[in-house]
Design goal:
Length: 522
Amino acid sequence: MSGRTEALRQLADQSEPWDVLVIGGGATGLGAAVEAASRGYRTALVERFDFAKGTSSRSTKLVHGGVRYLEQLNITLVMDALRERGHMLRNAPHLVHNLQFVVPAYDYYSLPYYGLGLKVYERMSGRLSLGASKLLSRQRTTEMLPGIVDAGLRGGVLYHDGQFDDARYAISLLRTFQDLGGTAVNYVEAVGLLKRGGKTFGIQARDCEEDVRFDVQAKVVVNASGVFTEDVLAMDGVAAESLLAVSQGTHFVLPHSFLPGSTALMVPKTADGRVLFAIPWHGSTIVGTTDVPVPGPSAEPHSLAGEREFLAEHIARYFGRRPRGEEVLSMWSGLRPLVRKGGGKTSKLSRDHTILVSKSGLVTVTGGKWTTYRRMGEDAINHAAGVAGLEKLPSRTLDLKLHGWAENLGDMPESERVYGSDLPLLQSLPGDEEELNTPLHPRLPYRMREVVWAMRYEMARTVEDVLARRTRALFLDARAAMEAAPAVASLLTKELGRSDAWRDRDLQRFLDIAKEYVYVEG
Ligand SMILES: Cc1cc2nc3c(=O)[nH]c(=O)nc-3n(C[C@H](O)[C@H](O)[C@H](O)COP(=O)(O)OP(=O)(O)OC[C@H]3O[C@@H](n4cnc5c(N)ncnc54)[C@H](O)[C@@H]3O)c2cc1C
């Protein structure tokens, strides 16, 4: 029986209600699920697409306090996030690492201003500091950021923050949740809430693969559906159209040659007041992000012409030339669920999280950042335990090592490092050695072995799950991912016992999604 089939059977089992049922398998939902299961509550989670299909695979990949929020004087958010950053690094060293950032200064005022600000930022992290910040000479700045435009450069400021692989972190949370006895199923949607006497006691679920509906009972339901939060609140009869503002951010992925070396570039204020990063990631350079209000949520957001122009223009400003079409290896967009507080620009809206407990007892957790997912989960489950009358139990997640935790990973390639302590098992996967060792594509750091692993142990169900979130092929090189897709589709069809018609449909669905990650100039 496959992992998903068994999980589905457990989910649909009506013999006993779950203590906690979570809607949404992004950072927030998975964080809440791990929080609940680690306290000993019987917990289940449903995700209507794949784990981290939404915003949680589309971030800038920073585990950070947020220098910008410090400038906005949101001290509590920065302090909380810096503490979480330290613990994420300790609890998942295979997925999070310390990264050096340099802020280039093109005027004399920026050096003392950012020098002081970043010193305060460093001090705020206390004993969880990742390293000292310091002022750099002009020459040292260009050594650390080779390729950066040096006309008018005065110097720079070095500081440290965390970097991670967001979707792999989500998969590690999923595996941790399962290790703790939790049940999570992807491609299961909450389509309604079960109500008795005005109180929520579960969900009506739909298995999206088979289009079958069934009830799942629970003592409390947690709504962690990201930018879709208002849709779930509407199922509860709560009109909340004005709770969230949705803001889109887009990234370009460029070849490593744009920013050789291992230091990231941070621009604290672009001409229109945004923060922009260029960050080394899995052997490439991510540039982003934008911050554009959009009318509402969508499962597969697309970049806007204005965002692409903004990125190309800023790449030219800091690296001396616009990237050519084929140099943009991939581009992706994500949607921020920002809690609206009195309107204004989305870039100025708070990244704090919000918890709402509705009259029916539905607990909604939204807003926040990837970096604060654990804290959000802790808060949500404190409220949920109160609603459900569960035994009050302390949180254990601050020092909970995540699945794959491993020490002394050295400087192995990032594509292997993300498996942590699972790497030996992955490397000794039983099967046809020649097939398993076949590279996915000459430009991608993956082999067929990772595809099989993703299906057997990480609940990957589609070509997109494998190429977008179990491996990061789609995010690293969209054209290569499209070329690798037919072989992945065939392997998936064999492994999951699917038909040729299913293979063709799933492959086409992936190609339709992937073509939006390909940048076309003009
Ligand atoms: C461009 C961008 C860059 C960012 N960069 C960073 C960064 O560098 N660092 C950082 O800390 N934060 C960053 N963030 C913020 C961070 O990514 C988000 O705060 C976080 O991922 C939100 O997670 P979530 O679980 O709330 O939402 P999501 O990841 O969207 O998860 C919600 C899930 O709920 C599911 N769902 C919805 N409705 C239903 C239903 N009815 N039934 C079942 N499932 C349902 C969805 O399919 C989805 O998977 C960034 C955000 C954006 C947009």
